[in-house]
## 1
Amino acid sequence: MNATISSIGIYHPQKEIKNSYFEEFLDTSDQWIRERTGIENRYYASENEYTTDLCVKAVEALAKNHNTNLQEIDFIIVATSTPEQTLPSVASQVQTRMNIPHAGCIDISAACGGFVYGIILAKGLIASRTHRKILVIGAETLSKVTDFTDRSSCILFGDGAGAVIVEASTENHLFKVITDTHGSYGKDLYLSNKNIPINGMPIIPDNKIRQNGRVVFKWAVSTLTKKIEELVSKNDMTLDDINFFIPHSANIRILEAVCKELNIPMEKCLESIRNYGNTSEASIPLAWYDGIISGKVKPKDKLLLIGFGGGLTCAGICLQNNIEMK
Ligand code: ACO
């Protein structure tokens, strides 16, 4: 059974955080943040607003954008590193809040690779003919797990959510995929409240997101460069066949370095880092949506989505865009 994606919805919280916010309590500047990360703005959830709330708003936006009958959804996958509870899953709470009867529900943990992993899993469920209409959501409230005394990480993160529906189709719009993981880098990007070493290394168990920024940066540039080439060739395509690349938006300099290495013009790389910061699982749908709304991404365009993050892990897919805003 073939699959396609023809609907999308996004949501970001209302509280806007400019770079100048951090100048008030950290030794940093708007200029440093813009130049070293590309970030100009991000949004934070309010005190009583959680990942499930963001997911619900993104799904409501999707339903409104495309006049979607949510009752037909038979599976919900939420990719998040910031569920408000370990149990119940965020997906199950979206199911009940949106009155979607009888859908299977799971949360998945693959950090900033999670949204693409979710699409890959949905594609597999549809191919196996067990399900026909799958809601895949990438959502984060990273502001709730940010250490605001660490100037090299706290300036990066933002909150947001993006939802798509992967559904059975007569035509195949979801092409071949890649997945890869280097678990030996687990200690270089983690979020834990347990005092258990990772890769034999002691960690800070304070439930805040911790990273070795330089290590992750270098790994991301070399991995994305290799994996984008591998994915394109696996699909019997060339880089020129792809209309837009949508890598996870972690830092504009990562995207610039990858594009330079592969000789891809930056205009073909869609990002969400400037306006939303690093929103992890939400970053790819946010960039995709902005690309559609701005009129850049059109139906039938070939897209390459590639996520990477904590694990360190990576997942990519080539697809034909079937989303149109009426
Ligand atoms: N303001 C001013 N100076 C700063 C700041 C700041 N906010 N942060 C760090 N600096 C300083 C450092 O202290 C250092 O000073 P020094 O030279 O006197 O020691 C200098 O700037 C350079 O520090 P670097 O760590 O080398 O800075 P870099 O250019 O690497 O930028 C950053 C840091 C932005 C974290 C970058 O390494 C990065 O983006 N890494 C990748 C992050 C990533 O992709 N994470 C994965 C996704 S996260 C997830 O999964 C949710």
## 2
Amino acid sequence: MDKLIITAAPTGNVPTRSINPFLPVTPDEIAADVSLCRQAGAAVAHIHARDEKGKPTTDLNVFKAIMEKVREQCDIIVQFSTGARGGSGAAERGACIALKPEMASLSTGSSNFAASVNYNPPGLIKELAGRMAEHGVKPEIEVFDISALEYAEHLVEKGLLEKPLHINLVLGVPGSMQGNPRNLFYMVESLPAGCTWSVAAIGKSHKQLSALALVLGGHVRTGIEDVPELEPGNPLSNAALVERIASLAGIYGREIASPEEARVILGLK
Ligand code: ZN
């Protein structure tokens, strides 16, 4: 079994400080927070950008500031989000790809969020995939539903995605596949051969599915984006969430990958 890659998702588009006072928002806060996550065992940082009012933004300058400040502080792998809440079209959502982060998220299908559509039509997916290929950015395929997994394989057949894929199974989003062992096993059994995979279990299934993922040989994402409150009234910092996964890994005999080791596991150039 490969060493465990822990991805920290510190900010997201939705959480606010009123829900979790530890939420990092500005580039300085995000960089300092990510550095603490790195010390706690994270090898990848999944990054969303916020504007001065704390709202989601696709402003290239904000992404640039975050990337520079993170790189000043640590060697963590930077993964930018191109998710549906980040903007309307591929140009807006994919603007950050031009900064050549080592990775970027790529949702390969549409589903629902709690109150909006996780809108990823085929043309947009192909355009984002093309931009990532052009800039040497490894996609993390975000799978909210089984059809997105199958569509990723279709894109490999069409030459628009390159193997080995890295797939993040996002479970527990209201309106998409729910977070339970049956759904996780179904997704894991359906993974394409030779891929690497992780689980981002949103909300109340976070503890159980994170543990299952690391026992099954998958990798794990955690952070305030996924669990603003681990239990009601118990918000934790991103580093504390990463520490929890790292200690679970110790209990189940999984070593933690450094960013350098994660680069090899993920096939980053
Ligand atoms: Zn995200």
